[in-house]
Amino acid sequence: MPTQLQHARDGTVTAEMERVAEREHRDPEFVRRQVADGQAVIPANRAHDALDPMIIGREFATKVNANIGNSDTTSGVEDELEKLHTAVHYGADTVMDLSTGDDLDAIREANVERSPVPIGTVPIYEAVTRVDDVADITPELLLDVIEKQAAQGVDYMTIHAGVLAEHLPLTDGRTTGIVSRGGSILAQWMEAHGEQNPLYARFADICDIFREHDVTFSLGDGLRPGSLADAGDAAQFAELDTLGELTRTAWDEGVQVMVEGPGHVPLDEVAENVERQQEVCDGAPFYLLGPLVTDVAPGYDHITSAIGAAEAARHGAAMLCYVTPKEHLGLPDAEDVRDGMAAYRIAAHSGDVAAGRPGARDWDDALSEARYDFDWERQFSLALDPERAREFHDQTLPGDNYKDARFCSMCGVEFCSMRIDQDTRDADGEMETIEGDTDLSTSPAAEVNRPPTGTHDAEPVADAAGTDTAETDDD
Ligand code: SF4
Questions:
Q1: Rounded distance, CA 426 to CA 450, Å?
Q2: Residue 333 scores a pLDDT above 90
Q3: pLDDT digits (tens, 9 = 90+) for 109-122
């Protein structure tokens, strides 16, 4: 049976493409062309019956992934299903099951059975749990795990095939070495065996499995920088070049592809990172972890990374992997998942608004109108996190009589600026025109409002006497 990519190339609009078009308010033919050209993916394993299809691509709303999964010390099937429910409840578009503890098959099968969103995995994690030593992993074991997970209905898999033996010395001298779990495991394996990365060497075999089940590649960035000090180094970009090569190979094999990206990147380099990936990987959807734009705020890394994520979304990132406040510190709990999801949905939506993606601003405008109308119920229901908006409002004004009050407790009834504004306007919502005799060009404000020396263009500004002066950076 053809994959979504093969169908698209054949000119067939699948049921999944129809559904995606409906969800995104786009023309089904546009969706088909985006998939056919590899510019978007519809991760939809044929065995994932509960899936409500979605699309990942820079022309569509920016998506957010949430990571869940147990470790060797925590959580079983019921706990993981609870995490899945929490992630989807707070708006996750996809969920990655990164379990490394017990009951891996039961957890994965339960997730696929219940999840309306695509499920992603990192198969090398399971391979590690099946051996005593990383060096004992064989290429056949990796292919067995990938085949089994594909048959279980996993929609996309992170495959770190771009970490080549030739790249490893490029990480010497890094401040934080190799921080990707998959990347560090493969580096250890290659150093132990003196051989090439088996995921690269057997990439054609993986393509065969993916094509059979219509699994989408998420080409992992195993050499991503783990600190600002390592951002944009030779190792990161050598791997990216290999990911470009693998993207084209997968397309030739009829398999959908997205590409993962860094990590930790200074704010002024985020746009450049997105543009470089788009160029090297011929527009394949870019899926970023953050990036964190500073390393100094453990405990707040959902914020440091959401800043980078918004900038990435604005410049064309297709999906953002959320980061929680526990990043670098511990396993997130349900409240951390909520905070991380909120931060990332804000980042994704801000990027969509700034990039002018169709319909993105409508949400903001609808909420602003409800706010100015003092329609508190509508404001809550439109809020990104309706429960939190209602909870915060009702902490001080809980009664039903306050649900159409023309104020809240922030400024109070007397100082509510929106109430004062409305009371000042006439019935048509207009201010009366007042004829004044103030000459703004000679007012003292003209002097006060001069821009600071040395940071502005050589635009003429009025001095206190009303004559023009021109200041330059040389002043
Ligand atoms: S009281 Fe202040 S914060 Fe509250 S609705 Fe009025 S202007 Fe907005």
A1: 35
A2: no
A3: 999 999 999 999 99
Report whether 321 belongs to an annotated binding site: no
Q: Cα angle at 380 between 376 and 385, to 5 degrees?
A: 160
* Residue that the structure tokens 């306050």 belong to: 402
SS3 15: helix
What residues line ligand 1, using a CB cutoff of 6 Å? 407-408, 410-411, 416-418
Q: Is pTM beyond 0.85 here?
A: yes
pLDDT tens string 338-378: 999 999 999 999 999 999 999 999 999 999 999 999 999 99
Helix (H) or strand (E) holding 286: strand 286-289
Q: How far is the CA of 407 from the centre of ligand 1 (A)?
A: 5
Provide the mean pLDDT of the chain: 93
Q: Is residue 206 a contact partner of residue 124, using CB atoms and an 8 Å limit? A: no
Closest CA to ligand 1's atom 3: 410
From atom 4 of ligand 1, which residue's Cα is the shortest distance away? 408
CA–CA dist 277, 262 (Å, integer): 11
Tokens of 340: 């991380």
According to the model, what pLDDT value does residue 434 have? 86
Q: Is 223 annotated for ligand binding?
A: yes
pLDDT in tens, 253-293: 999 999 999 999 999 999 999 999 999 999 999 999 999 99
**Mean pLDDT along residues 403-419:** 95
Looking from the CA of 392 toward its CB, the CA atoms found within 13 Å total 9
Question: Using CA atoms, how far apart are residues 45 and 39, in angstroms rounded to an integer?
Answer: 19
Between the CA of 365 and the centroid of ligand 1 the distance, in Å, is 17
For the CA atoms of 301, 99, 150, 105, the dihedral, rounded to the nearest 10 degrees, stands at -160
Q: What radius of gyration, in Å, describes the C-alpha atoms of the chain?
A: 26
Centroid of ligand 1 to alpha carbon of 371 (angstroms): 9
Quick one: pLDDT band at residue 22, thresholds 50, 70, 90? Answer: very high
DSSP 432: P
Tokens 């060497």 sit on residue: 201
- For residues 349 and 356, give the distance between their C-alpha atoms in angstroms, rounded to a whole number: 10
Query: How remote is the CA of residue 66 from the centroid of ligand 1, in Å?
Result: 34
Q: How far apart are CA 72 and CA 305, in angstroms?
A: 27
Spatial CB neighbours of 239, under 8 Å, sequence gap ≥ 6: 162, 163, 164, 167, 221, 222, 223
- The DSSP code for 248 is H
The stretch 433-451 carries a mean pLDDT of 71
